[in-house]
Amino acid sequence: MKVIKHSFDGVIVGAGGAGLRAAIEAAPHMKLAVITKLYPTRSHTGAAQGGMSAALANVEEDNWNWHAFDTVKGSDYLADQPAVDILCKEAIDSVVELEHWGLPFSRLENGKIAQRRFGGHTVKEGEAPAFRACYAADRTGHMILQTLYQKCVSMGVTFFDEFQVLDIKIDDGVCKGVIAYEIATGNIHIFEARAVTFATGGFGKIYKVSSNAHSLTGDGPGILYQKGIPLEDMEFYQFHPTGIYRLGILLSEAARGEGGILRNKDGERFMERYAPSIKDLAPRDMVSRAIATEISEGNGAGPNNDFVYLDLTHLGAETIKQKLPDITDFVRTYVKIEPINEPIPVQPTAHYAMGGIPTDVNARVLSDATGTVLPGVYSAGESACVSVHGANRLGTNSLLDIVVFGKRAGQSMVDYVSSTKPMALSENAAEDLTNKIENLMDKDHNLEFSVPRIREELQDTMEENAKIFRTEESLEKQTEILTDLRDRYQNVTISDKGKVFNTELLEAIELEYLLDMSDTTVASALHRKESRGAHSRVDHVERDDKNWLKHSFAFKNDASVKLEYKDVELGNYEPKERKY
Amino acid sequence: MDVKVNILRYNPETDRKGHWEEYILEADPDERILDLLHKVKWFDDGSLAFRRSCAHGVCGSDAMVVNGENMLACQVLVKEVSTPIKIEPIRGLPVVKDLVVNMDSFFDSYKKVMPYLVNDTEPGERERLQSPEDRDRFEDTTKCILCAACTTSCPVFWTADTYVGPAAIVNAHRFVFDSRDNASKQRLEILKDVDGAFRCRTAFNCTSACPRGIQVTKAIEDVKRQTLTIN
C-alpha cells in the first residue's frame, strides 16, 4: 500500500457545520487541513430543515435565559447548565455572524430575520410557544452548510475531499495526527497534526428507520472509543416524531411550528391528551412516545395500524409553498400524495444522538468521568456530548450547537497550536491501519460474513429492542444479539479487492463503528434504571433524580462495556417535574 | 416484481473501457433507483461503485444518467421509469469507476465565480436588513446542491469543458442578485469571459435536469442580461 505523509498543525475530521465552523476559526492561525469522506456540501447538516434558535426577539419579547430554561427543561434536567448558558447566550451573535457571511435567512416585512415557533421553545418559562427559530424556508441546514463552505472557499481553506480518517495516533496521552484512506486511489495518508477536531456527525444508521444519511456511522466516536476514550450518555437517542412512514425521511417540526397537527386513525388531535398546554409542539421525546403509545393501543392508521397522520391541510397552499416547500416536495416525491389536500402518514424515525465524545465547553475531549483533558483532541457537533442536550434535544438546538461549539473547537485548536511544538510521526504510524485493511483484503469472500447481512441484522434488532420503549428484557436480549454479531464481525469479508473507490472496504470498517455505537447505547440503557428524556424504561417509568441525575461514561473493556458516572452540573434551574 | 437493470460498468484496474452489465432484481415499485443500486452492491457485486449519502435528494451525491436523463438516483422511483432501466455515469467528466466521475473541474468552475458574499462595509452588531422582496430575487438559486446534474446535461459543456457551466452560473446568480453583496461587477466580468455565460445556447437541458427544480436557464439569462449593465 502506498503511504504518503503530510505535515499540518491542525486537522479537522468532517466538513459539516461544526467542522467548517471550526475551520473558519482555526485556518487563519495555523497550517490546517479539513478531511472529509464526502464532499463538504454533501454533509448531513444540509438535511436539517426547520431552524436555528436564538433569542433575537425579532417577532416578540424574548431573552436567552428563557431559551436556556427551555433547553434545560427539554433535556429533562440532564444537560449541564453552564454549557446551556453558553449555547443560548452565544446563539444571538452566532446567528448574526452567519447573516453577515451571507446566509439567506427568510425575512420579516421590516427586513429583520424571520423567526418561527418550534417544539419545547416557550416565552416566560413555559407560558406559550415562542417565535425563536431563525430560518430559511425549510432548508435552514442547507443554507448554513452552503454559507460556511462559501466562507471557507473565500478564505482558501485546504480540503481533502473523499479522504476517510480511520485512525488517530495518540502517544503517551498526546495527539500526534491521524491516518486517512484516499477513496479514489486506496492510498494511505499520514497527517501529522498536534490538534485534531472530530466533527463527524451522528450514527443514526444503527437503526433501521432513520432520518440519517448512509454516511452517519459514528466514525469519530468509534475511532476514539477503540483507543479507550469513553462515550457519554449513549442511552439518550432521539427519535423524531415525524419521519415519512417506512422511509424515515425527516419532515421538520417546522410543519407543526407553522400549525400542523398530528392525528390518529379517528382524526383525533391526540397530543391534547399528552401535552395539554403546548400540544403538538411538545418536545420530541414526548411526541414520539405519544405516537408510539397511540400505535400500540390500536389508534394507528393504515391496514397495520402502524402510523399516524401529520395534517397540514388547513394551512393553505400559500403558507405551504412559502414556508414548507422542501418537506412537502419530499411527500410528493416519495409518497405521491399532495399534502395541501391530504394528511401525511408519519412514524417516529431515528434522528439524533444526544450522546457522544465527552467534551468540556471548549470542545476539549475528556478521557474519563473526572474531567481529564486529552491534549490536542477536540470534538464538536453531533459527534460530541458537551452536554447541552442532556436526555432530549430541543429542535433547532443542533444547528446552534454546531456553530457555537464548532467555533470553540477552532479557538481551542488555535490556543493549543500556539503553545506547543509540531509533532512528528514515523512512516510506520500507518501500520495498524494497513494491517487492518490487508487483513480484510486477504480473506476469501464468504456471503455469510458479508457486511450487509451483519449490518441489516444489527439495524433490525436495534429497532426492535432498543428504540423508544425499552425493558431490561429487551436490552438483555439485544446484548446477546450484539455479542453474536460481534463474533461474526470478526470474520467479516468483502468481495472487492481493488484499490479504486472500494466503498465495500469502507462499509466493512464503518460497521465496526456501528457495533461500537450499539454496544455502548445498549449497555448504558440497560444500566440506567429510570426513565428520562428519550430513554424510556417500561420497567422503570419514573425519573429518579436521587440516583440518576448523572451522565453515563461508557468505556471499552475488551469485548464488553464498562460504565462510570459523573454528576450533572446544575445551575439556575432545579430539577422539577416536566409537564407541558 | 422483477426489474431488469443495465449498468454501465468500468473498473480502471481491470477494464480498458466500459461495458454494460445486466441485473434482474426483485423490486417494489415504490423503491428508489438508489435502492436498486444498493441491492446490486450489497447482495450481488460489492465492487459496484457509486456515490450516495442522504438518500432523499438534498446532498447531491448521486447524480447519474437514468434512461438517458440526468437525475438523482435517490429521487426517482422504480415505477416512474421504463424498463429495462439503463444507468450510466453523468457525462462530460472523467469516469473514475462505474458510476463515479471525477468532480475536480466541476468544483474548480464553481470556485471561479466567487461563490461567497462580498461586503466590506461594517455590518454593525445586528443583522443586515433585507426586504422579503429583495430576498425573493435570488431565492431560486439558493437551492443548488452542487450535484452537477445541470452542468453534465449541457451539450456545450460536453464539447467545451472549459465552459464554467450552468451550476457555476447559478451560484454566481445567487450572489449577483443578493442586495447585500458588493462584488457583482467582478463576478459579471468573469462571466462575460469567453468561457462564461454567453457560451450558453439555451438548450434548456439544465432546467429539466435540476433535481431541485431551479429555473437554471432563466438564471443564466438573468446573468447574461445583467452583464450588459456593467461597463
Strand order of the largest sheet of chain A: 7-3-2-11-19-18
- Show unreliable segments of chain A: none
Biggest sheet features of chain B: 5 strands, mixed
What's the end-to-end separation of chain A, in Å?
A: 58 Å
Structural class of chain A: alpha/beta
Mean pLDDT of chain B: 97
Low-confidence stretches of chain B: none
Task: Describe what this molecule looks like in 3D.
The complex is a heterodimer of chains A (580) and B (231). With 580 residues, chain A is α/β, with parallel strands linked by helices. Chain A has 16 helices and 24 strands. Chain A has helices at 17-26, 64-74, 81-100, 140-155, 219-225, 254-257, 271-274, 284-296, 317-323, 325-334, 397-418, 431-442, 451-465, 472-489, 503-527, 545-548; strands spanning 3-7, 10-13, 32-36, 52-53, 115-123, 128-134, 158-161, 163-171, 174-182, 188-192, 195-198, 231-232, 237-244, 261-263, 308-311, 344-353, 357-358, 364-366, 373-379, 384-385, 469-470, 536-537, 550-557, 560-567. In chain A, the strands form seven sheets. Chain A has a six-stranded mixed beta sheet with strand order 7-3-2-11-19-18, with helices on one face. A four-stranded mixed beta sheet of chain A has the order 1-10-9-8, with helices on both faces. The mean pLDDT of chain A is 97. Chain B has 231 residues and is an alpha+beta fold. Chain B folds into two domains: 2-101, Beta-grasp domain (Ubiquitin-like (UB roll), Roll); 104-227, Fumarate Reductase Iron-sulfur Protein, Chain B, domain 2 (Orthogonal Bundle). In chain B, 29% of the residues lie in helices and 14% in strands. Chain B contains eight helices and seven strands; from the N terminus they run E-E-H-E-E-E-E-E-H-H-H-H-H-H-H. In chain B, the strands form two sheets. Chain B has a five-stranded mixed beta sheet, with helices on one face. In chain B, helix 2 (104-112) packs parallel to helix 5.
